[in-house]
Amino acid sequence: MSIDTQKGDDGVLVITLNEPDRRNPVGHATRQNLLAVLAEAGADDSVRAVVLTGAGGHFSAGGDIRDQGERSLAAHRARFAVISDLVSRMARFPKPLVAAVEGWAAGGGFSLAMACPTVVASRDARFVASFTKIALMPDLGLLSTLPARVGPARARRLILTNRVVGAPEAHELGIVDELADVGGALDTAVALVLEEAEGPAMARQFIVDWFARDLSPALEYEQAVQPMLINSADAAEGRAAFAEKRPPQFRGC
């Protein structure tokens, strides 16, 4: 299984993306597993809060390139229905949910962290959109969650330029809520969710719902457009260039 779970005596469920040899890619099976675990955790009264992290010193290097081959639009859109369910559940999760980021959060890994209402990062963590490097647009809700944190103009530039943002700058921009010492993101995140879990759950839910109000149009847009981009010649070239470690030659088709 590509994710591990561990619940402490304090009621904090730690979900770990666990494919460290590949920097924890977020493929379709991983998204399905994560959705199932979050659904169960949301309904489990013994779970007070959830922390999402990655194994091996990295959060996630993004989508699984090996899982992005050409499929029918219907098949792609069925997969994106899972993404929509997952991201909606994360953004509106009924209990405190925090991403604990060490190392890289890139592409889909960046999006996954941004889907969490709160983000803790170690001081050496790095964030990058990187979708356009393989001729794709952002998905997992990043078109909504990143502008909500940094503003539309800055989000557009970060997405289009694929500029790497280190944790201290990410904290200044609002991408990260709390900084931790290297190796300490998980402990800081656990302390944070326990503090938040002491608050009034019903009021918290309505507040979280309000701040996620603009997410649905972005998820609908990516479900309509991203499948066509994945099947494009440019995306095929992007995947090939990534595998061959060379610059891509995009043709706009």
TrEMBL record:
Gene3D superfamilies: 2-enoyl-CoA Hydratase, Chain A, domain 1, Lyase 2-enoyl-coa Hydratase, Chain A, domain 2. InterPro entries: ClpP/crotonase-like_dom_sf, Enoyl-CoA_hydra/iso, Enoyl-CoA_hydra_C. Belongs to the enoyl-CoA hydratase/isomerase family. Pfam families: ECH_1. PANTHER family: EG:BACN32G11.4 PROTEIN, ENOYL-COA HYDRATASE. GO terms for molecular function: catalytic activity. It comes from Paracoccus seriniphilus. This is Short chain enoyl-CoA hydratase /Enoyl-CoA hydratase.
